[in-house]
Design goal:
The protein is an alpha/beta fold. It has helices at about 30-40, 65-80, 95-105, 125-140, 145, 150-155, 160-170, 175-180, 180-185, 220-225, 240-255, 255-260, and strands at about 1-5, 10-15, 20-25, 45-50, 85-90, 110-115, 205-210, 230-235. Helix 4 (about 125-140) crosses helix 6 (about 150-155).
């Protein structure tokens, strides 16, 4: 991983391959490891991974932590690399940051790949916000056993094995323990404040969504696909039913980037 600094915050990134620049952003609690698990080298694609603020070894400014600030970081990395326009893609939080960046920096984006959207022009649902807030507080103090006594645990313990494990994994992730604040801040925010902004997106957009995912409702993907002109929508398998096939389908969509751009 390499480093650059934006507004005083050190951020780590990876830049490999050659061809169409593709900045692929991880989800909340993820990192470059998440991206590599679904995206290996792609012929004709220059894969760029950014460990966003509060993830991996990157720093964070909690006083300005927002989707706008994360979108600014993405644009700043393109500046740092001397890239005028890139394909932006992301999973969950990464999809939200990609959408934010495309709307606020339209001249920098060639196409969008949005996977398992967790936000639209609304915050996460109240129950998911509760689960993340309890997770963040217990990462700060109390640990996993304290979390299992919370209302948030009751919310995530039932829907699926994937959801349950997704809320337990942060306790084993030093970056999540160290940067617990993100779980209290982002779920209540929105990446796009005005629904009309979706109509301004003029680049090719591909959205992938799955069913049976508490934090990434299928309906969010469908809603965005209906709002963004000319959007291409794909239903992919859910993690519980067939996680390897979900990753394969994501990989297939990534290999379509040269066509999109």
């Amino acid at each position: 991983m390499k480093w650059f600094t934006h507004r005083g915050i050190p951020l780590e990134y990876e830049d490999e391959g050659s061809g169409i620049p593709f900045l692929f952003l991880h989800g909340m609690g993820g990192s470059d490891k998440q991206i590599r698990s679904v995206c290996g080298p792609v012929p004709g694609v220059r894969r760029i991974i950014l460990n966003q603020q509060g993830h991996g070894r990157s720093g964070a400014d909690w006083d300005s932590y927002s989707f706008d600030r994360l979108g600014d970081d993405a644009a700043a990395l393109l500046d740092h690399l001397g890239i005028d326009r890139a394909v932006l893609g992301g999973i969950s939080m990464g999809a939200a940051v990609s959408l934010n960046t495309a709307i606020r920096y339209p001249g920098r984006v060639r196409a969008l790949l949005l996977i398992r959207n967790a936000w639209t022009d609304k915050p996460m649902s109240e129950e998911v916000q509760t689960a993340y807030a309890d997770l963040g507080r217990c990462l700060k103090e109390g640990g996993v056993e304290a979390f299992k006594q919370t209302e948030g645990w009751k919310i995530v313990d039932g829907p699926s094995d994937y959801t349950r494990n997704a809320f337990l994994q942060p306790f084993d992730d030093p970056a999540s323990v160290r940067n617990w604040q993100k779980y209290l801040i982002l779920p209540a925010m929105v990446p796009v404040s005005c629904p009309a902004d979706f109509q301004r997106i003029s680049v090719p957009v591909t959205i992938a969504a799955c069913r049976g995912d508490l934090c990434h409702p299928f309906e969010y993907g469908k809603y965005l696909a209906e709002q963004i002109p000319g959007c291409e929508f794909h239903e992919i398998p859910d993690k519980d039913t067939d996680a390897p096939r979900q990753n394969r389908r994501i990989g297939e969509l990534i290999r379509e980037i040269p066509r999109l751009a």
